[in-house]
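#structure-requests
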Amino acid sequence: MRADAQRNIDAITAAAVDCLSRDPDASVNEIAKAAGVGRVTLYGHFPSRADLVDAAAVRAIADGAALLDAVDLDGEPRAALTRLVEASWQLVNRFRSLLLAAQQTLPPGRIRSLHSEPADRMLGLLERGQAAGVFRTDLPNPWLISVIQNVMHGAADEINAGRLDATDAADLISATILAALTPPGRRVPAPTRVPDDSA
């Protein structure tokens, strides 16, 4: 691929992330203008709005990987999970309008595929907590991962609908997920008071 074509693609996808993160209904014209290219150039690389939304979602997830890579997943599994959930929520919250655009535009299977790497990261921590006896084992792990993702996406929907304050979301998400993962009959720990053996 020619260097100028790659520059155009980078500019278009960056503009798509920016525009769709502010407005899930941002038009192709708006994105082309923000990227500094014409509609013909944009459509030459992304034949449909769905292709553009897909590329923006891929870029947002790739950009967020550095934040998730920096999360300390060692120590007590519940404390590590709380840290990972809080970092994951930062990304979901930052890109919640883009997520809405993806949900409106892309098939559910594609959205699941885009989330496969973050899901695998969460699964590894879930399995470690199960081995330590602090996370439940009576429900299938794919279901538990789906619950975690849907709690975060549900919080984004509630914020978009004006029913939840973004500043309250992280604590509510952590409390809900820890409750969902606690083995039946066990006391649910307070998210902010979970001991961390790595300290």
